[in-house]
Amino acid sequence: MAYPRVLEPGQRSEVWIAGTSSDDPTLVLETSDLLLEAPNWTADGLLLLNGDGVLWTVDPDDPSAGLQRVDLPGLPEANNDHVLDPDGKHVYVSAMDTHVYRSPLAGGVSERVTPEDGLWHFLHGVSPDGTRLAYVELADFGQPGRLAVLGPDGSVRHVETGPAHLDGPEWSPDGAWIYVNTEAYASRPGHAQLARVPDGGGPLERLVESETVDWFPHLSPDGSHATYIAFPAGTEGHPADLDVEVRLVSTADWTTPLRRFPLFGGQGTLNVNSWSPDSRRFAFVAYPVS
Length: 290
Fold this sequence. Notes:
Elements: E1 13-19, E2 26-31, E3 37-41, E4 47-51, E5 54-58, E6 68-69, E7 78-84, E8 90-95, E9 100-104, E10 111-112, E11 120-126, E12 133-138, E13 146-150, E14 156-159, E15 166-171, E16 177-182, E17 193-198, E18 205-206, E19 213-219, E20 225-231, E21 242-250, E22 259-265, E23 281-286
Antiparallel strand pairs: 1-2, 1-23, 3-4, 4-5, 5-6, 7-8, 8-9, 9-10, 11-12, 12-13, 13-14, 15-16, 16-17, 17-18, 19-20, 20-21, 21-22
């Protein structure tokens, strides 16, 4: 896996904010120097992104100061699977040494939290009480991902979802469900769809049936809305540099998008939960080519 990712000639990163209202999205930051990915929205109002293997912050309401690097000495190269700790002071970071680390948002020394089991660990969810992590476990990139939950005592529980590839596990705000994208319903290779599974285990429940390839469901903190990214039919995996669509839905009806945001992107656009703490706005990244 080539990492860190870089922009192609003539390409730029654009960090956008949209919301649940009908207002036009706002361009927060653009750069042709750094491929930025996967915004989180911190409790104190900053956007946190990865780029060039490290983490950066920017103030979405006053971006004039630009990007600020988070000083995390000793942390291996970070990828775009990073999720905020509910304590508001830490972030869990998937790194390119296969492991997940807990890092202070203010900077400092990181702590490895995943076991030395010879597997890749791609984090997507932290339980609302901050005690458990939901991640995708991979032996190699030719095998389907499995849903694993890391407990506070270091134990690992596998949630049975069948043999099909699964990704993006993320808890609902009430902790009752883990939302995922899965190929369990696929009639052709790669046709990921959105579903959820009870936190304690149980059958998958499909959320929407679509012709697009749908990835990374993210619920707002109040549970009323969700975002996800739709890839073109026939897409396998979640690659970069495609015409995709970020969709906003009500969690009461996943079948009818409330807003659609077409853009050139894919990988890095919406890999992690990017909702603001007040559930009114969300961030995503586009990668247009001039």
